[in-house]
């Protein structure tokens, strides 16, 4: 299995454990020799991939998210096919699931896994290992949730198999941590509290019941939220903590508080044995006893605020209001829990006034909550599988017609037609949002080598500019462009 680079890969800052690869591998690693190559941390990944290919593997699996990771995934496929064209390449992940037919059109890809790889990997490996082409195709047709290429004479066609639901998370094996070098991930500073030296991520649930139009989750999960039991979640997490002597756990659940009773039970079982951080909606945080959660070890929350404009919040069906966001922020301010806020901008029809409403809300959040930080202002990209995608097309977005075309995407997507008239403003907000609170990057400074005094000066400088809605200074934009490329690794 190959986990490609993503374009935002700063060791000890943004490189987390490849949880998806580990979870799929857990289904077969006990009976099959399994290797995970993580291009983000392995500078000699090509050499190591070639070494593994000499062992004549049954297949090579590639993870894929829409964007830069596609480019590097295709690089890995070229290595495979140049070394041994007979080794099947299997693509899985979010992008492959959303656009399986287009993904399979690429000449370097033989099979696409649709949905959760855990429920198909055993049958898929059993089919691909058959040397007889006829028998292999027969077994592939019986493997659920895939689409593959079948040759008939000189012709080649795509065959899509039946769909099969979702994995039962309580029945999945424990992750095979021995397949990766934990030291590559254990010091990552993303989403951990200050003073935390060793942390790893974990996922106890999948899916989300909400309907945000910029998100592909409603299509991927059918708005179904599934989870491990609180008891199993704690048992596996505690085992990981003890095995690697962790200070904290980063829960990567898309909505940790989707079931508040279960979340509080997990926290109660943790009982401050280690710190933990979560992703959660503001309305969900407003429904729980935050003081109690803090006593149990909750140290960081990361909600998506998205916008300070009521119209934009309605457009994206966030189902939260600005007044509700401010109310919960004040509730969080009564604790020592660090609140890391994400914003989005660059939506179709969004005005400069609505952009200013978002920056005003961001300033108010950090002003009213001394523990609030801004993760950043990210630029909306119309991802396939989202409700807002069709709206974006109607507003001039040109849809890529090849897999390679989707590789230009990033979490700071600047090619959409409706933002071109305010591109300088959006760039300025995008870059300065990383510094405006004066503290967001403090936990990363040991890796980025930026003096704290310089960071504070930037914060004070740009807060004043934000207060005056001054986002048009091109010198500022060029300076921040240089700094973010140098320190943050942004492309």
Summarize the structure.
This protein has 491 residues and is an alpha/beta fold. Helix content is 38%, strand content 14%. It is built from 20 helices and 16 strands.
* Share of β-strand residues: 5-15%
- Secondary-structure-based class equals alpha/beta
What CATH architecture of the largest domain would you give? Answer: Alpha-Beta Horseshoe
Q: How far apart are the termini?
A: 26 Å
Oligomer: single chain
Report the count of strand segments. 16
Can you give a write-up of this model?
The protein has 491 residues and is an alpha/beta fold. The chain folds into two domains: 2-160, Rossmann fold (3-Layer(aba) Sandwich); 173-488, tm_1862 like domain (pyruvate-formate lyase- activating enzyme, Alpha-Beta Horseshoe). It has 20 helices and 16 strands. It has helices spanning 19-25, 45-53, 68-83, 94-98, 100-104, 121-128, 133-141, 217-221, 230-244, 260-270, 282-285, 290-296, 310-315, 322-333, 352-368, 387-394, 423-432, 445-448, 452-467, 474-488; strands spanning 2-3, 37-38, 60-63, 89-92, 111-113, 146-152, 155-160, 199-202, 205-206, 226-227, 248-251, 275-279, 298-302, 304-306, 338-345, 372-379. The strands form four sheets. Strands 8, 11, 12, 13, 14, 15 and 16 form a seven-stranded parallel beta sheet that branches. A five-stranded mixed beta sheet has the order 3-4-5-6-7, sandwiched between helices. Strands 1-2 form a two-stranded parallel sheet.
């Amino acid at each position: 299995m190959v986990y490609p680079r993503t374009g935002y890969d700063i060791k000890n800052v943004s490189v987390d454990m490849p949880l998806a690869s580990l979870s799929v591998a857990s289904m077969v690693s006990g009976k099959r020799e399994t290797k995970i190559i993580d291009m983000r941390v392995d500078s000699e990944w090509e050499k190591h991939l070639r070494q593994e290919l000499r062992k004549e593997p049954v297949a090579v699996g590639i993870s894929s998210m829409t964007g830069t990771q596609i480019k590097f995934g295709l690089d890995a496929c070229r290595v495979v096919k140049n070394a041994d064209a007979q080794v099947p390449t299997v693509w899985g992940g979010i992008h492959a699931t959303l656009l399986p037919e287009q993904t399979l059109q690429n000449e370097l890809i033989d099979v696409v896994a649709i949905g959760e790889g855990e429920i198909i990997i055993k049958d898929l490996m059993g089919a691909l290992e058959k040397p007889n082409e006829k028998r292999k195709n027969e077994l592939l047709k019986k493997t659920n949730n895939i689409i593959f290429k079948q040759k008939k004479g000189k012709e080649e066609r795509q065959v899509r198999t039946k769909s099969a639901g979702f994995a039962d998370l309580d029945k999945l094996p424990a992750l095979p941590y021995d397949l990766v070098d934990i030291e590559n991930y254990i010091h990552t500073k993303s989403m951990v509290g200050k003073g935390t030296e060793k942390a790893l991520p974990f996922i106890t649930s999948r899916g989300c019941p909400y309907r945000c139009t910029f998100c592909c989750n409603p299509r991927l999960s059918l708005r179904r939220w599934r989870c491990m039991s609180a008891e199993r979640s704690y048992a596996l997490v505690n085992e990981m903590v003890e095995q690697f002597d962790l200070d904290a756990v980063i829960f990567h659940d898309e909505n940790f508080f989707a079931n508040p009773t279960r979340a509080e039970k997990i926290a109660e079982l943790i009982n401050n044995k280690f710190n933990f951080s979560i992703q959660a909606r503001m309305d969900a945080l407003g429904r729980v006893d935050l003081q109690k959660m803090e006593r149990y070890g909750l140290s960081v929350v990361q909600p998506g605020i998205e916008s300070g404009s009521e119209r934009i919040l309605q457009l994206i069906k966030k189902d939260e209001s600005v007044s509700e966001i401010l109310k919960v922020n004040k509730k969080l301010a009564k604790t020592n829990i660090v609140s890391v806020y994400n914003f989005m901008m660059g939506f179709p029809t969004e005005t400069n006034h609505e952009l200013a409403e978002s920056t005003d809300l961001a300033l108010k959040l950090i002003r009213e909550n001394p523990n609030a930080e801004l993760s950043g202002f990210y630029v909306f990209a119309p991802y396939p599988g989202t409700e807002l995608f069709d709206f974006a097309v109607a507003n001039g977005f040109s849809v890529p017609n090849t897999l390679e075309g989707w590789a230009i995407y990033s979490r700071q997507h600047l090619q959409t037609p409706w933002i071109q008239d305010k591109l300088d403003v959006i760039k300025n907000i995008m870059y300065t949002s990383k510094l405006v609170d004066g503290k967001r990057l403090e936990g990363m400074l040991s890796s980025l080598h930026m003096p704290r005094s310089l960071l504070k000066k930037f914060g004070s400088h740009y807060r004043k500019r934000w207060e005056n809605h001054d986002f048009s200074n091109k010198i500022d934009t060029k300076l921040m462009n240089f700094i973010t490329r140098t320190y943050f690794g942004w492309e």
